[in-house]
Amino acid sequence: MIDAVAEELIQRQIARDGRSLLQYVGESAPYTPARSEPAHVRIAELAREEQEAIGRLIRFMQRHHVAPPVLGAFPSHFTTINFVALDFLLPALLREQKFAVTDLEHSLAALPESETRHLLWGYLEMKRRHLHAFEEMSSVAHAH
User: Fold this and answer.
1) pTM value?
2) Contact indicator for 42, 90 with CB cutoff of 8 Å
């Protein structure tokens, strides 16, 4: 059994990241000039890795007999980005990752030592790797 605080934290991560801008961009096809194709491929990889990690959170909840949140549709305001260049999306993806890392770090600081904390610590490490990848892609995009 997981406690209510841990359950709420996992629920929030699943809901937020399951319908994040990264997941939306991973499922859409933003305009990508040839010079940005490596970033497009990398973003798709990051989205897939995050989706797999979300799946692990969901399975963890199910093993503890807790229903995961229903994801529903992506936020409607994401549809306004369907026809923009990938270079335009990178700053927003970077901001989203920075916020997600900071928020999860703060939440984990208050979570007592537990199986849930270890699970979410691994999730945080993935988010940090993604943040670093977005920082690298942004610096390359600005160099062009």
Assistant:
1) 0.89
2) no
- Token pair, residue 7, equals 């359950």
- What pLDDT is stored for residue 142 in this prediction? 64
- pLDDT value, residue 1: 66
| 88 vs 53: CA distance, rounded Å | 26
CATH for 104: 1.20.1260.10
Under DSSP, is residue 72 helix (H, G, I), strand (E, B) or coil? coil
**Contact between 137 and 39 (Cβ < 8 Å):** yes
What CA–CA distance (Å, rounded) separates 19 from 22? 8
Q: How long is the chain?
A: 144
90 and 141 Cβ atoms separated by less than 8 Å: yes
Residue 13, both tokens: 């991560």
Domain span including residue 133: 4-143
